[in-house]
Specification:
Number of helices: 5
Low-confidence stretches: 1-11, 13-20, 27-46
Number of strands: 6
Largest sheet: 6 strands, antiparallel
Radius of gyration: 50 Å
Mean pLDDT: 79
Distance between the termini: 137 Å
Length: about 210
């Protein structure tokens, strides 16, 4: 049996022959209790911390919310685009109608007086229609006797304003005109301002004035 002698003062094992102390295995155990190395340190810091993870029900709820928001935004943008396009279409239709009504108003031929004036009546409404109709009985004999012929060489229209059911249009017209005393047509220029209203699906003139 081998006996190991300790120093009575320190209780430590004697030094090894080369002068170094043999490490006590109990010291290693104690060091292990203090810390198990750098890999274990983060675990001690995260002790008691739980990582949050969304539940499937919450994920579905968020997806539904995002989808509803996207649909609402698309609907709003779609409606705004539709309204803008509708205003553009209404303005274009009013402009075309105003130009055509101005052309019909200036066009006059003694040989086709009734047909010419009917086109104006068909494209008008309200006070202007009544006023125009009341002048035809006096106008027809004058046009017929003078053999008046007025045609339109060029017409340029500009839209002043427009909404869903009303519009204002300015039309410039160049109209070669002849009669019994002036057989060679003379070019006359007119500038007309028309107020239009929407009657059903058609634009009709409710007021017409000559402007300088």
């Amino acid at each position: 049996m081998t006996m190991v002698t300790t120093h009575p003062e320190t209780g430590r094992l004697p030094s090894t022959p080369d002068g170094s102390d043999e490490p006590d295995p109990r010291d290693a155990d104690t060091a292990g209790d203090v810390g198990s190395g750098p890999h274990d340190a983060p675990r001690a810091g995260l002790r008691g911390v739980r990582t949050w993870r969304p539940t499937p029900r919450l994920l579905w709820g968020l997806m539904a919310l995002f989808l509803l928001a996207a649909v609402a935004v698309s609907a709003t943008l779609g409606r705004a685009t539709w309204q803008q396009q509708r205003q553009t279409d209404d303005g274009a239709a009013a402009l075309a109608a105003g130009r055509q009504i101005a052309v019909n108003f200036v066009t006059m031929d003694a040989a086709s007086f009734d047909a010419d004036t009917k086109r104006v009546l068909d494209g008008s409404t309200g006070a202007f229609q009544k006023e125009y109709a009341s002048t035809l009985a006096q106008l027809k004999p004058v046009v017929t006797a003078n053999k008046t012929v007025s045609t339109v060489e060029r017409a340029e229209a500009s839209l002043v304003s427009a909404d869903e059911d009303s519009a204002k249009v300015i039309v410039g017209v160049v109209a070669p005109t002849s009669n019994a005393s002036t057989p060679q047509p003379e070019k006359k220029t007119y500038r007309l301002r028309l107020d239009l209203v929407k009657v059903g699906d058609a634009w009709k003139v409710s007021s017409l004035d000559f402007v300088s």
